Amino acid sequence: MIKFAVYGKGGIGKSTIACNISAALAAKGLTVMQIGCDPKADSTSLLHGGDRIPTVLDMTRKTNGKFTLDDVVFKTASGVLCVEAGGPIPGLGCAGRGIINALESLEKLGAYEVYKPDVVIYDVLGDVVCGGFSMPMRKGYADKIFVVCSGEKMSRYAAANICMAVENFKGRGYASLGGIILNRRGVPDEDEAADELAADFNTYVIGSLDRSEDIPLAEEAGKAIVASAPESDTAKQLKAIADSVYAICGGE
């Protein structure tokens, strides 16, 4: 089983990229499970026609913890198995603790043994990497971390913090850095800035995505681009990213 996490600053497009990676790998016949680790619980919406699914924390509160996998794991038309960790009631509780609760609940219910996914993708909010937000990096969860960034200063700053966290965890047998995914925003010297960031952490840019009208159009329709416009240049770039990620994680 291949397990990796996609991190990145809020709004950088990591969920769009994660959903398209999931859809692209599922189209190859792989069983893919995507787990959204963001309190907004919108990680998998592009795989569900724009709709949101009940979250693990929703069901924990609703059933007092007495729920089944069928209550929190939803299979899409493309075959991707989707889970959303969810978050606390706004203003109450810790979002990071919610992620810990959700991932531990999936393990306790035997999700990985029941569904036997070939690929597990954790889509994680990554402005800061602390507490529960670092959970997918820990031993037994993701094996590789991929960081989405643009050439914009704050995006690179957040990406550097994530990469630094991965480096700090390295001695504990946690996930290792798989590479940088560049989501271009059209700023000057963007590719050079991404390459410099990657070099600072002894990694490289494993794929890039150009700005395109295909992206907001697909999001408005609630669809992954690799499914809605499979022959577009954007879809081809996303499929190439999916192939690179899969190969780096040991897929054949």
Task: Name the features.
single chain; 252 residues; alpha/beta; Rossmann fold; 8 strands; 18% strand; metal ion binding; iron-sulfur; NifH/frxC; oxidoreductase
What share of residues are in beta strands?
15-25%
CATH class categorisation: Alpha Beta
Strand line-up across the major sheet:
3-4-2-5-1-6-7-8
Catalogue the unreliable spans: none
Task: Describe the 3D structure.
Pfam families: Fer4_NifH. The key enzymatic reactions in nitrogen fixation are catalyzed by the nitrogenase complex, which has 2 components: the iron protein and the molybdenum-iron protein. The protein has 252 residues and is an alpha/beta fold. It has a single domain, classed as P-loop containing nucleotide triphosphate hydrolases (Rossmann fold), CATH 3.40.50.300. It has helices at residues 14-26, 56-63, 69-72, 95-108, 111-115, 153-169, 190-200, 214-221, 225-228, 233-248; strands at 2-8, 32-37, 74-75, 81-84, 119-125, 144-149, 176-183, 205-209. α7 (190-200) links the parallel β7 (176-183) and β8. The longest helix has 17 residues, at 153-169.
Short structural description:
This protein is α/β, with parallel strands linked by helices. Helix content is 40%, strand content 18%. The protein has 10 helices and 8 strands.
List strands and helices in order, with pairings.
Elements lengths: L1 E7 L5 H13 L5 E6 L18 H8 L5 H4 L1 E2 L5 E4 L10 H14 L2 H5 L3 E7 L18 E6 L3 H17 L6 E8 L6 H11 L4 E5 L4 H8 L3 H4 L4 H16 L4
Helix pairs in contact: 1-10
